[in-house]
Amino acid sequence: MTAHVHTSLRHPLVFRTLEVRRVETLTPHMRRVVFGGEALRGFVSAAPDDHVKLFFPNARGAIVRPEIGPDGPIHEAGVDYSPMRDYTPRRHDAEANELTIDFVLHGDGPAASWAAQAAPGQTIGAGGPRGSMLVADDFDTYAMFGDETALPAIGRWLEELPPGKRAVAFVEIPGDADRQTLTSYADTTIQWLSRDGADAATSKRLEQALADWALPAGETFCWIAAESGRARRLRQSLEGRGVAKDCLKATGYWKAAD
Predict the structure, then answer these.
(1) Which SUPFAM superfamilies match (predicted)?
(2) Among positive and negative, which fits the CA dihedral 137, 142, 145, 151?
(3) pTM (whole model) above 0.85
(4) What is the DSSP letter of 148?
(5) 194-207 pLDDT, tens per residue?
């Protein structure tokens, strides 16, 4: 078996103010926002599953972020800080000086609520990415398992894979109308798993798809992103089938309410 070498990169932490340039509704549960502005100069996102921390307007409509001390963010008592969430850079066009981020529209949280009303000219804050993990490029197949929150990373990963590779993606979505057109130079198979009204935290569509999936010939890297508990169980399932740690990455993109 090949000893696959992944590369970890660290980036300087930079805070930026992003201005909305364009907004597009992709599907009933996904809205794309394209940001621009001079503050994007020097932005770096090296891996498909990088994340930036976005700062949304507080109750007064202001962007207020904590200061960063030697031990992390410093939150002062009584300050109305901006709500913040992590998001995947779906696409960065350095020449056009634009950053595309896709927002899942679910519930009434600060990010989804902001994205639902986003319009050109509005601004939010952003920080990062602080780092990137570059997965080794010598696998034969790249397999991706995720719910709709993972779609931006999956879409970007497929676009960045070169010819000669194989990719398989299992994507759980709220309904058939949430399918997207994803492109790739790789030999790609996408299986859309519609929940049809089932709860995203307790659905078993991804789990069943994984149980039915036979590991392909050659060496495969498996990537998982979903609700935290589900991502952990999917990882354990693959480990139980003999997938080595350097061939697997699982991340909880969100956590179900207790």
Answers:
(1) Riboflavin synthase domain-like
(2) positive
(3) yes
(4) G
(5) 999 899 999 999 99
pLDDT in tens, 145-156: 999 999 999 999
Length of the chain: 258
> Where do we find the tokens 């696998």?
139
Cα–Cα distance for residue pair 111/121, rounded to 1 Å = 17
What is the rounded CA–CA span in Å between residue 205 and residue 211?
A: 10
75: CB partners within 8 A, 6+ apart: 66, 81
Look at the block and give the residue holding tokens 């930036």: 52
Question: CA–CA separation, 31 vs 26, rounded Å?
Answer: 6
Give the residue from 51, 45, 53, 87 showing the smallest Cα distance to 72: 53
The helix (H) or strand (E) run that includes residue 156 is helix 151-160
Neighbours of 171 (CB within 10 A): 25
SS3 239: helix
Q: Beta partners for 24?
A: 32
Q: In whole angstroms, what is the distance from residue 168 CA to residue 189 CA?
A: 5
Which of 227, 209, 229, 137 lies closest to 168 in space, CA to CA? Answer: 209
Cβ atoms of 63 and 17 closer than 8 Å: yes
Q: Please state whether beta strands 166-173 and 187-194 pair in parallel, antiparallel, or not at all (unpaired).
A: parallel
178 contacts: CB under 8 Å, gap ≥ 6: 27, 28, 29, 30, 148, 194
Listed residue (134, 110, 113, 135) closest to 55, CA to CA:
110
